[in-house]
């Protein structure tokens, strides 16, 4: 009795790559702006980064319909929190909320691969990385999406402390300056674009620091 | 596997002996080896004085770019070239094979090769492999009978056309051709149109990318324009210049070898 396979899938993969890096007083969240389906480009100008709170941004790759639904859900929950507590949600609190939201749909998941970046209550950068069903971890840097396998080893090489035994890499934020981190992110995406067909067109970088939020854009290869 | 005398000479074609075992492994969860496909946009068109072939230069392995600047326009004869889409090994092997066969044929007949000869050799080879040799080709050339352009599909069928496109970017390229092609184009108009069609594939198809290669074939003359257009330079080079290697020296130990081996001065030099 062979199992019958569905001839329709509720999911599609719109491709794309996301990266986040935490610094001592800043956090950088970046994603490309290409949205694709199969071998086609749907649009070259789609933002994968959502502003969840004043000091908290989320970049998500995967199925953009699910990503949009997830973003709307979290924005609504944040609004309710603000009404009930008279303050913005902290990044670790948002991180837990995202995890719970994802696990709530454990048996029909959001096809979304997320990185959450922001400043914690001390003003130090923090990055949280997720899988599709809500398993999360606070890290110093992370990448998700189609280009993550290309970018992650490079970030490990550049950002991971030489001996994890002496300095636990998990909590350590990178000693790089904000401009160095941005340079690193641009290099990551330019390189990933060369070898991953789903990454390209334009890079959107969101920089969160004590002064507020800043956006930068950079052109990527369009082929 | 031994072959007894009764079986007779070994037949050509594929051996399907391992298929059952492969299916069983896939069911158990083994992911088979992937093929290097060329994704690809390839085109050809007939103009006033001959044939122009065009191709992109990206080779993909699934979602990864394996080669950013490969050559997809293959030599068949001095007056015949062939663009290949599909599995890279298949297009290389089949075009090399037919090229060799044609060289021998030229020695045998003492004449310039004809495009239809290459066409027949390619189609009969592909048909005999029942589509398993995954090569989709655009064959073009100029011989004594005039300029010719053909498309050849993996199962062995062929078309003779004034303009043709193949590969994952064929629709993007064909859209350009259908809008702008007309008979009796000049060389420059033809090159411009082919470049436009390939560029359309490069920018709108994710399986194609990097540069545009062009080959112009006319009576008694060929022009291979490798990387005729390079519309995709790297967009960002770090200000840092280079990234530090970040390797950590754990231990340094120096062992003088002359204590362990005997060094003979002079002696015979090693042969290459």
From TrEMBL, chain A:
<dbReference type="InterPro" id="IPR016050">
    <property type="entry name" value="Proteasome_bsu_CS"/>
</dbReference>
<comment type="function">
    <text>Non-catalytic component of the proteasome, a multicatalytic proteinase complex which is characterized by its ability to cleave peptides with Arg, Phe, Tyr, Leu, and Glu adjacent to the leaving group at neutral or slightly basic pH. The proteasome has an ATP-dependent proteolytic activity.</text>
</comment>
<comment type="subunit">
    <text>Component of the proteasome complex.</text>
</comment>
<dbReference type="GO" id="GO:0000502">
    <property type="term" value="C:proteasome complex"/>
</dbReference>
<dbReference type="InterPro" id="IPR023333">
    <property type="entry name" value="Proteasome_suB-type"/>
</dbReference>
<comment type="function">
    <text>Component of the proteasome, a multicatalytic proteinase complex which is characterized by its ability to cleave peptides with Arg, Phe, Tyr, Leu, and Glu adjacent to the leaving group at neutral or slightly basic pH. The proteasome has an ATP-dependent proteolytic activity.</text>
</comment>
<dbReference type="InterPro" id="IPR029055">
    <property type="entry name" value="Ntn_hydrolases_N"/>
</dbReference>
<protein>
    <recommendedName>
        <fullName>Proteasome subunit beta</fullName>
    </recommendedName>
</protein>
<keyword id="KW-0539">Nucleus</keyword>
<dbReference type="Pfam" id="PF00227">
    <property type="entry name" value="Proteasome"/>
</dbReference>
<dbReference type="GO" id="GO:0005634">
    <property type="term" value="C:nucleus"/>
</dbReference>
<dbReference type="GO" id="GO:0005737">
    <property type="term" value="C:cytoplasm"/>
</dbReference>
<keyword id="KW-0963">Cytoplasm</keyword>
<dbReference type="InterPro" id="IPR001353">
    <property type="entry name" value="Proteasome_sua/b"/>
</dbReference>
<comment type="similarity">
    <text>Belongs to the peptidase T1B family.</text>
</comment>
<keyword id="KW-0647">Proteasome</keyword>
From TrEMBL, chain B:
<comment type="function">
    <text>Component of the proteasome, a multicatalytic proteinase complex which is characterized by its ability to cleave peptides with Arg, Phe, Tyr, Leu, and Glu adjacent to the leaving group at neutral or slightly basic pH. The proteasome has an ATP-dependent proteolytic activity.</text>
</comment>
<keyword id="KW-0539">Nucleus</keyword>
<dbReference type="InterPro" id="IPR023333">
    <property type="entry name" value="Proteasome_suB-type"/>
</dbReference>
<dbReference type="InterPro" id="IPR029055">
    <property type="entry name" value="Ntn_hydrolases_N"/>
</dbReference>
<comment type="function">
    <text>The proteasome is a multicatalytic proteinase complex which is characterized by its ability to cleave peptides with Arg, Phe, Tyr, Leu, and Glu adjacent to the leaving group at neutral or slightly basic pH. The proteasome has an ATP-dependent proteolytic activity.</text>
</comment>
<keyword id="KW-0647">Proteasome</keyword>
<comment type="similarity">
    <text>Belongs to the peptidase T1B family.</text>
</comment>
<comment type="subunit">
    <text>Component of the proteasome complex.</text>
</comment>
<dbReference type="GO" id="GO:0005634">
    <property type="term" value="C:nucleus"/>
</dbReference>
<keyword id="KW-0888">Threonine protease</keyword>
<dbReference type="GO" id="GO:0004298">
    <property type="term" value="F:threonine-type endopeptidase activity"/>
</dbReference>
<dbReference type="InterPro" id="IPR016050">
    <property type="entry name" value="Proteasome_bsu_CS"/>
</dbReference>
<dbReference type="GO" id="GO:0006508">
    <property type="term" value="P:proteolysis"/>
</dbReference>
<dbReference type="GO" id="GO:0000502">
    <property type="term" value="C:proteasome complex"/>
</dbReference>
<protein>
    <recommendedName>
        <fullName>Proteasome subunit beta</fullName>
    </recommendedName>
</protein>
<feature type="active site" description="Nucleophile">
    <location>
        <position position="40"/>
    </location>
</feature>
<keyword id="KW-0963">Cytoplasm</keyword>
<keyword id="KW-0645">Protease</keyword>
<dbReference type="InterPro" id="IPR000243">
    <property type="entry name" value="Pept_T1A_subB"/>
</dbReference>
<dbReference type="GO" id="GO:0005737">
    <property type="term" value="C:cytoplasm"/>
</dbReference>
<keyword id="KW-0378">Hydrolase</keyword>
<dbReference type="Pfam" id="PF00227">
    <property type="entry name" value="Proteasome"/>
</dbReference>
